[in-house]
């Protein structure tokens, strides 16, 4: 059997790429041209922030964790500060974010609420396409490897196969992380204790109120 030259070895890999492209409708290396996704198909990452004033932060914290669990979510971590504030970081199924925030807000006095959203449809679709194309290329290289007889050919194909597999693993990790962010919204809940005035505090508050009325009636 005649020995293949190096340009021919490169051609083997190029052929594998071309076949993978044809398998996937010629979309290798670029996002396929398709209709714009409908509003229902768009991928959106939503995050919520809720700040409450409560009488007993520790007790309320346990209630928050239970409500999150009932919504199908989970608590990633919570932190208690020296001034008795408790910060809880949660993940909530995206469709239940708003209603869960409403239920949690009912546990105390709502001081602040915000919800942000980021459209990641293009990034999501691009990763999906690149993973699919690289998987097709990997499969074709594995077929070529199974038929290779020359050591030089085996080494060249194995090298390219390892590179493609590494790219697939990196992109898959990014895709899984992005999909998780779309499916599970982030929710930050801060519980701060109510300020209870002592006798002197009430006197001081009364003095300040009287002084304020000396300057402004209404």
Structure explained in plain terms:
By secondary structure, this protein is α+β, with helices and mostly antiparallel strands. Helix content is 54%, strand content 22%. The protein contains six helices and five strands, in the order αβαββαβααβα. It has a five-stranded mixed sheet with strand order 2-3-5-1-4. β2 and β3 form a beta hairpin. α1 crosses α4 and α1 runs parallel beside α5.
List the keywords.
five-stranded mixed β-sheet; alpha+beta; elongated; single chain; 218 residues; 6 helices
Tally of separate helices = 6
Parts with pLDDT < 50 across at least 5 consecutive residues: 1-7, 25-34
Shape: elongated
The largest β sheet comes out as:
5 strands, mixed
The mean pLDDT is 83
Q: What is the distance, rounded to the nearest whole angstrom, between the alpha carbons of the first and last residues?
A: 101 Å
Total beta strand runs: 5
Strand content: 15-25%
Radius of gyration, in angstroms, nearest whole number: 29 Å
Write out the strand line-up for the largest beta sheet, numbering strands in chain order. 2-3-5-1-4
* Share in helix: 40-55%
Specify the structural class.
alpha+beta
Write the element-wise H/E pattern from the N-terminal end onward. Answer: HEHEEHEHHEH
Strands, helices and their partners?
Elements: H1 6-23, E1 44-54, H2 57-70, E2 74-80, E3 86-93, H3 97-105, E4 109-119, H4 121-147, H5 151-183, E5 184-193, H6 199-215
Parallel strand pairs: 1-5
Antiparallel strand pairs: 1-4, 2-3, 3-5
